[in-house]
């Protein structure tokens, strides 16, 4: 039986989702927990590879097993897992369901705090100086006109193409928070953090809209802004 897992995690203490030889990851914790509790050696496939320190408010994964998993299994897992990982549900899925390849889109949010608050530490980027949000939003919307995002990709990755289709993007404010959101069919490594870092330069007046276009069209990571810290980045939705 193929099972779909819906979960969330705070990524601060993890080197991303994907299992690594010498680092603690969410996949490793989850697989080891299932093996220990249910004596079931499963290999879990996630909907994407979140970087070290990145959070997920909503994450999808799948695994195959001959065991029967249900709401009782969810309770047992949640009782054992660390406080920064929580399972919403485990449900049967069709044989052809694939957490990564069946996904139509993913949505990330990056949170900027404009007011110092110790309870936001590790979950947002603190920027007290005002930003020109109208220019940042204009630049964001222009991303929908492009497909090659080499300028915002981590160098020397093993992907075959740097083409992505951005379906929606924008900025919303909530109290003292600035939330930048981007929905796309796929994301390159470090892509959202590099885009946000460059947008902040636009918001500070260090780059104009024309500069932003030129950065995208240059297909050169060296021309874009610095990547913002992982603290403020959240995967918030996956559509199938």
Summarize the structure.
The protein is an alpha+beta fold.
Strand content: 25-35%
Helix content: 10-25%
Count of domain modules: 2
Multimerization state: single chain
Over all CA atoms, what is the radius of gyration?
Answer: 19 Å
CATH-defined topology of the largest domain: Alpha-Beta Plaits
How many helical stretches?
5
Low-confidence stretches: none
**SSE ordering:** EHEEHEEEHEEHHE
- The end-to-end span amounts to 19 Å
Q: What's the overall geometry?
A: globular
Please tell me the CATH architecture of the largest domain by its name: 2-Layer Sandwich
CATH class of the largest domain: Alpha Beta
The overall pLDDT, averaged over residues, is 96
Number of strands: 9
The CATH homologous superfamily of the largest domain? Pseudouridine synthase I, catalytic domain, C-terminal subdomain
Largest sheet: 9 strands, mixed
User: Helix- and strand-based class?
Assistant: alpha+beta
Question: How would you describe what is shown here?
Answer:
The chain has 240 residues and is an alpha+beta fold. It has two domains: 2-93, Alpha-Beta Plaits (2-Layer Sandwich), CATH 3.30.70; 105-239, Pseudouridine synthase I, catalytic domain, C-terminal subdomain (Alpha-Beta Plaits), CATH 3.30.70. The chain contains five helices and nine strands; from the N terminus they run E-H-E-E-H-E-E-E-H-E-E-H-H-E. It has helices at residues 26-38, 71-80, 133-142, 191-203, 209-218, and strands at 2-9, 45-46, 55-64, 85-93, 105-113, 125-126, 166-174, 177-184, 233-239. Strands 1, 2, 3, 4, 5, 6, 7, 8 and 9 form a nine-stranded mixed beta sheet that branches. The longest helix has 13 residues, at 26-38. The model has no long low-confidence stretch (mean pLDDT 96).
């Amino acid at each position: 039986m193929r099972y779909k897992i819906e979960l969330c995690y705070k990524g601060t203490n993890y080197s991303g989702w994907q299992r690594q030889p010498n680092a603690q990851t969410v996949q490793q914790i989850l697989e080891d927990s299932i093996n220990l509790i249910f004596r079931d050696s499963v290999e879990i496939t996630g909907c994407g590879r979140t970087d070290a320190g990145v959070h997920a408010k909503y994450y999808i994964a799948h695994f195959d097993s001959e065991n029967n998993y249900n709401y009782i299994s969810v309770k047992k897992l949640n009782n054992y897992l660390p406080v920064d990982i929580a399972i919403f549900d485990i449900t049967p899925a069709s044989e052809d369901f694939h957490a990564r390849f069946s996904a139509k889109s993913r949505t990330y949010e990056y949170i900027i705090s404009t007011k110092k608050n110790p309870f936001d530490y590790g979950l947002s980027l603190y920027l007290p100086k005002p930003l020109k949000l109208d220019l940042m939003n204009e630049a964001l919307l222009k991303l929908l006109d492009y497909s090659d995002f080499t300028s915002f990709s981590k160098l020397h990755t093993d992907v075959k193409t740097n083409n992505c289709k951005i379906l929606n993007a924008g900025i919303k404010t909530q109290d003292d928070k600035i939330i930048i959101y981007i929905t796309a069919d796929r994301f390159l490594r470090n892509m959202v953090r590099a885009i946000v870092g460059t947008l902040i330069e636009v918001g500070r007046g260090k780059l104009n809209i024309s500069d932003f276009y030129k950065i995208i069209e240059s297909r050169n990571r060296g021309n874009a802004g610095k990547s913002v810290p992982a603290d403020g980045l959240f995967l918030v939705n996956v559509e199938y």
